[in-house]
Amino acid sequence: MPKFDKKELKQLLDKVDAYDDAYYNENKKLVSDAEYDGLKDRLKTLSHDFEPQEGSKTDEKLKIRLDDALSRVGAPPPKDGKWKKVQHEVPMNSLNKVNLPAELGDWHKKCGGARELFITEKLDGISISLRYQNGKLVLGCTRGDGEVGEDITRNVRKMKGVPHTLSKDFTGHIRGEIVLFHSDWKKHMPDMANPRNAASGISKRIDGHQTEHLTVLVYTIDGVDFDTEVECFEYMKSLGFNVPNFHTGTLDDANKLWQKYMDENRETLEYDIDGLVVRINDRAKQLALGEENHRPKGAIAFKFEAPEARTIIRNIVCQVGDTGQITPVAEFDEVELLGAKVKRASLHNFGLIKQLGVNIGAEVLVERANDVIPYIKKVTTKAPDTNESFGIPEKCPSCGAPTVRVGEYVICPNKSDCPPQVLGRLNKWIKELGILEWGESILTKLIDSGKVEDVADIYKLKVQDITSLERMGEKGAKNLLEELDKYRAVTLENFLGGLCIDGVATSTAKAIIDAGHDTLDKILGLSVNQLESIPGFGEKKAQAFHDGLVENANRIEAILNAGVSIKARAKGNLTGTSFCFTGSMDTSRTLLQKMVEEAGGTVKNSVGKGLTYLVIADPNSTSSKAQAARKLDVKLLSESDFLDLVKKK
């Protein structure tokens, strides 16, 4: 095993713990996607090598932190968008990724060295979930954060490759990607930067203009079970869908195909791809491997190498994030990378600026990580007038407060009045509770008008407070307040998770509650030592949480005084059990999942270790998912069996 550096692991965890909460749980981007992906990739590599020393409590805690840091995915749809928000019945999760043949080999070993792999193109488009009821299309929903997307059905109906009525009586979900074929791009919208950006914008046009030029390719299905991925693709084709090119073969075949696509095939396709997807063809074996960080272990994204270009930095601007972190952004001479014109890239933090030697006038190498996010890879020629790097701002560019240096980061300490931070706290609360319609647009207007400074203020708003804002009518104001009223009673984990305490996510709060500290008063009374004894908490995390509660004491009191109450965790006859639902049911999956939660149980999205029940149409099924469940000693229930179980007292 390679030499393992625990110090590096701890340093990465300190960064990623905060980034995961902000990016996945708060929709806040503290760093660019490129730097974030790089940190997560390094963490994943370390996780493969890290073997806790037997009997070492320090190593056990470190392993828990590592697992927790790699457990979050998602990006919510815009709350101020015009499309209806929809809760996915089947979550649209992501894949883990690798960039090199050696990394693919490591994944293959972890999968037991499966003989036959299923290899298909990784489409570079917009994820879409199609729901069919008795063979008829009833919903087309964007991915969103994987849990909640946007209903764009009326646009999807106009797209190529989407049958309105199927040849078979199918009920379930089919997942795919909205793409713009190159021929359609050149013919109908050649002025747009690239097919992916065009597909993204056109697919969500309210008037549906040009959506008929978009195409949907599909690659997975929920509602029917298959022995192999090949059978799954052939079935989707038989229903009238288009699928990306696919192959079967060995690990060596997958590596050769990846290289061939980069050298030749990629340029000949009618649509954009940014890699390959490699799966175990045997679906029972694939599903039995379970998930890692909400991503299947039996499938992997095999990404292509990123393109790069040289350019000159002309300016560096400083932007304030909603946690107060000040991020430098480089503006440079425009370059084109894979059809996209790029002229800005985040420099992440001032430590990196110094490390790279970045300054205005420097020649740099710009790369598009994952074929999407631009970032500065290195300085090729230093700025002609200076050998120094760009300086650290002494004042916050948003509120003018003196800045504070925290390691390699620069922070605005003015949490109470700095506008981006005020907006960040409100956004955190809104997202944590899942309150619809309250987007940044309305929150910014309320902040600018002086009507709202913190979470408690929004619960005190009246209709006239909102109608006094520009372009806000009485109907819209009433809708906003009616939606907000649904969230006056919140769970303890949502309440704590929504306070915007640095490094604290809902999962953090759940860990504390699961340890027996199940009321707000109990949690407020915990010492740092008591927090540190909770699984998943180290010294730094315990101290940060404790300090965060102290700093937010007045806010907590104000929120409660504004009429927000904390509701008790649901307890019932399903407490301590977990359920996964698969296939078509007479009752909607959303309602079935709600029954579980109201009875104190837990819903899981896939078959995996620790699952108690798999609810399936036929408990005697020999489907891949059923076989995977039996291998893991998961009990299979029919829908009627499940309903009987819920009713038991």
CATH superfamily caption of the largest domain: DNA ligase/mRNA capping enzyme
General shape: globular
The overall number of domains is 5
Output the number of helix runs. Answer: 25
Give unreliable regions as ranges: 22-29
The count of DSSP E runs of length 2 or more, i.e. the number of strands, is: 26
> What is the arithmetic mean of pLDDT?
84
User: Helix amount, in percent?
Assistant: 25-40%
CATH class of the largest domain: Alpha Beta
Biggest sheet record: 5 strands, mixed
Order of adjacent strands in the largest pleated sheet: 2-13-10-3-9
Explain what you see:
- With about 650 residues, this protein is an alpha+beta fold.
- The protein has 5 domains: about 5-70, no CATH class; about 85-305, DNA ligase/mRNA capping enzyme (D-amino Acid Aminotransferase, Chain A, domain 1); about 310-410, OB fold (Dihydrolipoamide Acetyltransferase, E2P) (Beta Barrel); about 420-565, DNA polymerase, domain 1 (Orthogonal Bundle), CATH 1.10.150; about 580-645, BRCT domain (Rossmann fold), CATH 3.40.50.
- About 35% of the residues lie in helices and about 20% in strands.
- It is built from 25 helices and 26 strands.
- The chain has a 5-stranded mixed sheet. A 5-stranded antiparallel sheet has the order 16-15-14-17-18.
- A hairpin with a 2-residue loop joins strand 15 (about 325-335) and strand 16 (about 340-345).
- Helix 1 (about 5-25) packs parallel to helix 3 and helix 12 (about 420-435) packs across helix 13 (about 440-450).
- The relative contact order is 0.09.
